[in-house]
Design goal:
Blueprint lengths: L10 H10 L9 H6 L5 H7 L2 H6 L4 H6 L1 H13 L3 H13 L5 H16 L11 H10 L9 H21 L1 H14 L1
Helix pairs in contact: 7-8, 7-10
Pfam families: RGS (PF00615)
Main location: membrane
Protein name: Regulator of G-protein signaling 8
Amino acid sequence: LLTPLLPHTDHRNRGMRTRLGCLSHKSDSYNDFTAILPDKPNRALKRLSTEEATRWADSFDVLLSHKYGLAAFRAFLKTEFSEENLEFWLACEDFKKTRSAAKLASKAQRIFEEFIDVQAPREVNIDFQTRELTRRNMQEPSLSCFDQAQGKVHSLMEKDSYPRFLRSKIYTDLLSQTQRRLS
């Protein structure tokens, strides 16, 4: 008897989710992207120009800085069951904007427990040294306590996921859709 796998289960199930991914109904398609657009999909696609979508291939940071680029990349990562990397990176970006000393420690703890700690529900793939440095940084949280871990995750996404995203059906379908609007 198979039991359904819940999202955000511990890391022991991550391998199983990956192996079962081929049985999933998720597909690397344009439709998956439109389902999570920040606006209504049709209106969003009318606003997105081919030039904007093409610029996402210029650099990973260009992609991350664009609202619809971020949504498309998130949709792609979901198909690979690795959206925790982007969610961690975004949580760190938000954390760096924290101005209240009172909120700093609690936000840092929440990020650490969700993404960094061993067996965290959405544990990111970082090396032992980075994990331990981040753990030590938690003793006196500052706006830079996640910098090394965030940098490692950014680099991992840029070198690994981003090139696959640019070759994905999500991205190529999106480009085709914006180009068809012009004809």
